[in-house]
Amino acid sequence: MAVVWRDFITALVDAARRRDEQALRDERRRALDRLAEEKIREARREPPPEK
Questions:
Q1: In angstroms, rounded to a whole number, what is the distance separating the alpha carbons of residues 14 and 8?
Q2: CA distance 21 to 23
Q3: CA 39 to CA 46: how far, in whole Å?
Q4: CA-to-CA distance for 40 and 45, rounded, in angstroms?
């Protein structure tokens, strides 16, 4: 019976960990998207370099 509970608790912890990891991946992706958009806006604002 203890093995069943241990497996159950392990499964819960693993499920929570995967959810947390997915949330971190999503947040990193959103941060990269924001950074890319910011860099694109900056590049459009800057005048071309003079030669």
A1: 10
A2: 5
A3: 11
A4: 9
More confident residue, 26 or 46: 26
CA–CA gap between residue 8 and residue 11 (Å, rounded): 5
Q: Token pair for residue 49? A: 């370099």
Q: Which residue has 């947390």 as its token pair?
A: 20
As given in the structure block, the two tokens for residue 9 are 């608790």
pLDDT tens digits, residue range 10-25?
998 888 888 888 888 9
* CA atoms of 36 and 14, how far apart (whole Å): 33
CA angle at residue 43 from 40 to 27, to 5 degrees?
30
- Return d(Cα 8, Cα 1) in angstroms, integer: 11
